[in-house]
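May I ask you to review the protein record following this short note?
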Amino acid sequence: MYLLGSRMYVKCTRCHVALCLKDAQRCQSSAAHLEQHDFLKGAPHRKHPGVTNLKTVRLPEQLQVAAQSVLKRADVKSLSEKAHKLSNFLWSRKRATETSQLREKGVLLEKKFLEQERDIHTDGIDRKLEARIRKRVLSELRRTTYHRTPLRYKCIIVLKQFFIDWGCEVLCVLLDNSALISLLCWHVSRYDEDLGLVYMAARLAGGYAAVLRALNEIKKRDPVFVPYSLLDFGSGLGTGTWASHTLWGDSLKEYVCVDSSGDMNTLAEQLLRGGNDVDNPVIKQVYFRQFLPVSPKVQFDLVIAAFSLSELATLDERLNVIFTLWRKTNSYLVLVENGTKDGHQILMEARDTILKREDDVKHDLRRPSIFAPCTHELPCPKLIKQHVVPCNFSQFYYPLPLLKSQERQQEKLSYLIISRSDEEKPQKTERWYMARLISQVRRRPRHVQCQLCCANGELKQLAVTARCHGKDMYRCARSSDWGDLLPVFHAEDDNTENKTR
């Protein structure tokens, strides 16, 4: 390297060709290094502050032994097959279609099929064609609709009256077919002892891994937080209790588990006692309830609802429960659902409800703040896209040894963590902001492809290189994975990011 006037040149040792360096190239590396070194806070790149992922999760040994003991004593026939079917059912299950949506869909289908038949049969529509339209509407609704009808005949009467008012006689006749209701019925899962045992084999390890992954975000990013009390709504087998105890141990002095199924509460209590009826449980001070206490006067440091909101049949039920849980939250509210479109949208309903809904009587004046996974409080950019894809994350875990497959499995989850904030967020003065990695990191020679959800509410595709972003950020990107946080620098962001396709 040598200077010639105000320019700096670099000479290749092989071909002896001189290259002129631009000012930006000369100063970029050192400036970026200082900025990013501050972000690392002395930590190695593979453990930078944005890393929140866990390695492959194993059940706590005491929980695993207890589950094996309970299942062996029960001796359920074809347990692996039943567990596999239940897992597939719970994963593919969708939200129940609201009655208003069912009405609108039925009217649109009826009008659409009538217009198609009128174009073909100009001489009018006879009864045979009406019967054909009924079958087509029934078939389409059966194929695309999940509908809950707890009051079967009342629902039929309501729909009939609606269709009569709108002159949709074809659909009115269609509702006389009682098969429609049974075909479209969305059922609330009732967990008795037998189904609870199958659920234990199918979902104990995966549910524990998902909750632990979400709670680890709090443990890693807020190490000062030490919860004293826990409320677990829809506690099931008590995975929320076990995951919280794994992270915070004996600092938790009170666990309140709420589940409407008494049989599931009994199974959860057996697991706490090692699968036997011993008097000394592994985790003490655990209380089981079948109904959610509504009073907002008693709050809990940590409130969890894992795979529970999807068990509620209607939107109104979900929103009321969500708001009740938020009023009982002192520090963090953690919601976990399946990593499907419906699971993600249920969480976005909860997010919007808590951020926008005002309580008539405010018992806690602290405002809600989105802690994770979103790095902003704007509408989810994934829901705005033409082709909606869920915002989900992955966690590997080892299943119960009782099942045939002992290889590690993958749990796809969507989660939402909301905290209570005493005051407005201060304006950031740093040149960088935190962005969430929302897909697999693709590591390539000399660059890393990252898809990010940024603080401005936009999705960005970023190719991180050592030359453009500095060695620190490049090595952090290579050490990061799906679900971690990554620092993005404003100046570099404008010059190097690629538009999301």
